[in-house]
Every structure is written in C-alpha cells, then in structure tokens.
Input
Amino acid sequence: MSAPVAPKPPAPGPTFLSFIAQVDEGRLAANATEELELLVAELRAVALIQGAKPKGSITIELRIDAISPGMMEVVGQIKRRMPKRPQGRTPFWPTKSNGLAAADPAQLRIEGIDVATQGRDAVRMV
Output
C-alpha cells in the first residue's frame, strides 16, 4: 500500500490589493482613498484644536455572495468614524414659563448696558 499523496497547492491567484482595485471597477479603492484623506484632515484639525490625540477609523466591508459555484458577487462598503470635535457650552437659565433664556432673568438690569450673547466678555452699549 502506498502513502497518500498530498494535493498540489493551487496556483497563486491575484493578491488582495489587486482584488480590491477591481471591486466596483476601482471605485471602492478610490472612495477608500478619499475617505482616508478626509479622516486624516479631520484628525489633524481636531488635534490642532484640542491639543490631544484624536482617534478615527475606516472600515472596509466586503460582502461576497455565491451566485453559483463558479461565480461570486462582491459588494464593498466603506464606513468612516470621525473624531469628536469639542463642543461649546452655553449657559441658559430657566424661565417661569419653563423656557430657557440666555440671560439670567433674576439678574439686575442696568439701563443702557446689555451683555452681548457673542464672545466671552463682550459688553455693548445700546
């Protein structure tokens, strides 16, 4: 009785990079490049604003459906998670009618002076 013979490995196929370049006639790779550029630009902007180390991600999802034993259909999708930008905070005071006012309704008002709603320490004459 002779020893079993190991099957011959298949000939090398296209690489993953060349495969990705062909999905959706190259649009998936082009869109991924565009998404990467947008993400890097946003990361740089947020890092400049916050002085921190923001994080983001890009996910490329490939759905592969067997149309038949000899044919596959590939659908690619790109998801981008952008870093969170710092959000400003604005103080408001509740009113008697349960609304919100930008100025404290209980604060004394001085005739001729109004606190501006723009800028931190801005005061304007009216």
In short: The longest strand covers residues 57-68. The chain has a mean pLDDT of 84.
